[in-house]
Design a protein that fits this description.
Elements (H helix, E strand, L loop, with lengths): L1 H36 L2 H5 L3 H25 L8 H17 L3 H15 L4 H34 L3 H25 L2 H14 L5 H19 L2 H28 L6 H14 L11 H12 L4 H17 L1 H14 L1 H21 L2 E5 L4 E5 L1 H4 L5
Antiparallel strand pairs: 1-2
Helix pairs in contact: 1-13, 3-4, 3-6, 3-10, 4-5, 4-14, 5-6, 6-7, 6-9, 6-10, 6-11, 7-11, 8-9, 10-11, 10-13, 11-12, 12-13, 14-15
């Protein structure tokens, strides 16, 4: 009965998710697409070479994020960049499909990393560090761009909203770091209390996890070179994505001051962190287009440029992520891992199985259990 109820709840959630996505697409995305059709001449005048360049910048942004993840992982096991990129693509596909998808994407990324042999604490640390570190870098970029832009463009209430959201993210990141570094015992006590009330968590495992995370943070704090690498790759990830947006707009004949572009891009990226729709679907389009218009672009150019960028940045990773996941699970490496797991289970089963031997004293077969053979005992 519980399984049926759980399945029903999942079905209801999936249905609600699909309905919300359809509503968002119909009422926010399609009207803007229709508006862009009124300017069909933009499509006729588009520069295909710039479109290819923009796609290349978007791909480079994903590679930069993958390298950022690899920087935070331990040296062993050494994962090839191509495999880590497929893990990131799989994670991004889930993030873009589900409301609040960062949690689901993070869970999938964690499972895929541990499947590759990464220690659970190291995988959790890498994912958390990459997410929080990227948010910190993005907000710093936005605030610097705002300081440069406000004297020339004036103040917009949207700036304050983004600044408040960004400050909240930074405060949460700082609080988590301080709790783990300065108050490891306190963090352990909190999570032990949670583990006692949650059936899926083991208290001792949770305690070890906290201490390993704290140790990783101490190692990171004592390695300024690693921090510099993280800041570099996080900055490249955001700047390449923003550059892709700029080139998409340029492909349709628009030119925008790079500082204004970083302001507009930073605003929507910070607001997209609010888990309202998957990957900020609808919200990004609804905010970015009028912001670009406010910076001097025509509505038709801003609309079609933003839509083209979102196809590359949001929609294209979904099928690519599905193919990446399939390659991880069904490819040669995935098959070898499954065969190794099956052999391990078979070996364990044969070792622990009961054994029948002929007893000459009684003249019949006798069953020898594993404990009688000393299997599994010291």
């Amino acid at each position: 009965m519980k399984r049926r109820e759980s399945g029903s709840r999942r079905a209801v959630r999936r249905t609600i998710t699909v309905v919300l996505l359809i509503l968002v697409f119909n009422y926010l995305v399609l009207p803007r697409l229709a508006a862009s059709r009124d300017s069909a001449d933009l499509l006729r005048r588009v520069n295909p070479l710039l479109l290819l360049l923009a796609l290349g910048l978007e791909a480079a942004s994903l590679v930069a994020y993958t390298v950022l993840t690899r920087v935070t992982l331990p040296k062993e096991p050494a994962l090839p960049l191509s495999r880590l990129l497929r893990i990131q693509m799989s994670t991004k596909a889930v993030t873009n499909l589900l409301p609040g998808g960062s949690a689901a994407g993070g869970t999938l990324g964690y499972r895929l990393l541990t499947d590759e042999g990464v220690e659970p604490a190291a995988a959790g640390f890498a994912l958390a560090t990459v997410g929080l570190g990227s948010a910190v870098v993005l907000n710093l970029m936005l605030w610097i761009a705002l300081l440069i832009s406000i004297p020339f463009n004036g103040f917009n209430p949207l700036y304050a909203t983004a600044a408040v959201v960004g400050a909240g993210l930074l405060a949460a990141a700082a609080g988590l770091v301080v709790l783990l570094v300065k108050g490891t015992d306190r963090a352990e006590h909190i999570l032990r209390t949670l583990a006692r009330h949650l059936p899926m968590l083991d208290e001792e495992t949770t305690s070890r996890f906290v201490h390993k995370l704290a140790d990783r943070l101490h190692d990171l704090a004592g390695n300024p070179g690693l921090i510099r690498q993280g800041v570099l790759w996080a900055s490249l990830n955001w700047l390449l994505d923003a550059a892709a947006l700029w080139v998409f707009l340029r492909a349709f004949g628009a030119w925008l001051n790079p500082v204004n572009l970083v302001v507009a891009y930073g605003l929507v990226s910070v607001l997209a962190a609010i888990p309202i729709t998957p990957g900020g679907l609808g919200l990004v389009e609804a905010v970015l287009t009028p912001t670009l218009v406010g910076f001097g672009l025509t509505k038709s150019t801003a609309t079609i440029g933003v839509l083209a960028w979102r196809v590359a940045q949001f929609w294209l990773p979904i099928p690519l992520g599905g193919l990446s996941y399939a390659s991880l699970k069904l490819g040669p490496h995935g098959r070898r891992r499954r065969l190794a797991a099956m052999r391990s289970l078979a070996t364990e089963a044969s070792t622990m199985a009961e054994k029948r031997v002929w007893d000459e004293t009684t003249g019949e077969y006798r069953v020898i259990r594993p404990e009688e053979r000393g299997v599994g005992t010291d």
